[in-house]
Amino acid sequence: MKWKLTIRYLISVLSIVFIVIFLNTFILIGMLFYQQKHGIDEVTENSGEAFTRGFNKYISLENGEPVVSEEGIEALRVFGGWIQILDQNGQVQSSYLAPEDLSTHYSPMELIHKYKYMDDELNTYFIGEFESYSYLIGVPDSKEERFIFMMDPKTVFSYATKSLLAIIIVDLFIAMLVGLLFSTVLTKPVSNIIDRISQLKKRNFTVQETKRPGIYKPVFSNLNDVSQTLQAHEEERLKLEKMRDEWISNVSHDLKTPLASIQGYAELLRDQDVSQLERLEYSEVIERQSIYMKDLLDDFNLTMRLRNQEMPLTLQETRLESFVREIVIDLLNDPQFGQYEISFISDSPDLKWNIDRHLMKRAILNFVYNALIHNDENIAVTIRIHTDSLTIEDNGKGIPADDLEQIFERYYRGTNTGNIRGTGLGMAISRDIIEAHGGKVSLTSKIDIGTTVEIRLNE
Q1: Beta strands 450-457; 390-394: pairing state
Q2: Domain Histidine kinase spans what residues (predicted)?
Q3: Which of 152, 213, 306, 361 has the lowest CB atom count within 10 Å?
Q4: Does position 421 have pLDDT exceeding 70, yes or no?
Q5: How far apart, in whole angstroms, are the C-alpha atoms of residue 395 and residue 406?
Q6: SS (HEC) of 37-64
C-alpha cells in the first residue's frame, strides 16, 4: 500500500511538471509569434522606429525643397534627436538640431552601417522616407540599442528542440527526486492512517502513538479519540449484553413460577371434587399470577418505548404538594404497605411542575417501592418537597458501591435483592421518565445509613 501511494504521488508530481513545461513553452512560442506579427504596443509606440516612421507628417516641400515644420522641430527637441534630409544621391539637403561636425554626404554603405551600429559618439540612427527624399534621425545616448543576429533557421530549430528536451528531462528528474523525498514524508502517514482505519474496521480499538505524524497529527489525534470512544461503546455494549442475558435468565425464571402456578391451579380446577371456596382461591391465584406476568410485559414494553423516545407525554401544570400527598395516602391505604412508616414533608407548597401525571406517579412509586421492598419492615421513608426538587429518603441498609454505579442500568438487579421477584427495569424506567420530562435524577447511598433519591426538573 505504501509503495502504491508513493508511485501515485510521483506520477502526480511528474504530470504537473510536464503540464507546466508544456504550457509555458506553448505560451512563449505564442508570444513570440504574436510579437513578430503585431509587435509589442508598449514598446513600439514610443520607440525610435515608430517616431521616425511617423515623422514624415512634419515634412513638406517649399519651392521644391524639403522643410520641417515648427511642430516637427519641437517634436525632435522633446524626443532628444536631430534630423538630416537627404536626396537620392545621399547629399544632405537640410538639417535641424544636428551637430555641426556631421557629414553632409552619405553613401549607401554608410547609411546601412549607421542604421546597424552606433557611431563613436553613441548616436543611434533611424531612417525614414518622404517622397523622393530620405531622412536620417539621430538620437544621442538613446536607451534603445539595435542588435544584429545572423542565424540558420534549421540550426536554431534543432538547437531549440534539443534544449527544450534537455530542460524537460532535467525538470522531470528534479521533480521525481523532490517528489520521492516528499512522498516518504507524506505517504507513510497516509499509509498508517489507512492501516488504523482497517484496524477499527476489524474492531481493534487500541490507541496507538504514531512517530513523526507531521501535518497529519490532528488526524491521528482524532483517530485515537475515535478509538477510545468506540472502545467505550464496545465495553458498554458487552456490559449491556451481559446484563440483558442475565435479565432474560431472571425473567425466564420469574415467568416459570407463575406459569407453573397457573398451569397447576388450572388442572386442579378441572377436578370435580374441588369445592366452590377452593375454586375461588385457585382463581385468585391464577389472576394474581396473570397480573404479575402482564406487569412484567408492560414494563418491558414501556422501557423500550422510553428508550426509543416513542412515549408521548401528556403534560399538565401540577401543584406538586397535592400530587405527592395523594400518592402517599394511596400507599398508606394499601394493605401491603400500611405497616410501613411513610412521611411526607413539603417545604414549598406553591411549587408547580409540568408533568405527565400518570408517568410521574409511576416513577415516584418505583422509587418508594424499592425503598420499602428491599429493606426490613422497620424502614422509615420520607418524601420531601424542596423549593426546586423532590427527594425520597430512607434509613435502610443502603446500596453497595458496586451496585450504585449500575443502579439505573436496564436489566440490572442488585446483589441485595435476594429472592425478591423483579424485572430489573423499575429504576431504568423511572430514570427514563424523569429524563423524558427534561429533568435529572440522582441517587446517593451509604451502607447501614440509607439511600436518597433526588428528582429535579428544568422548569
Answers
A1: antiparallel
A2: 250-459
A3: 152
A4: no
A5: 21
A6: HHCCHHHHCCCHHHHHHCHHHHEEEECC
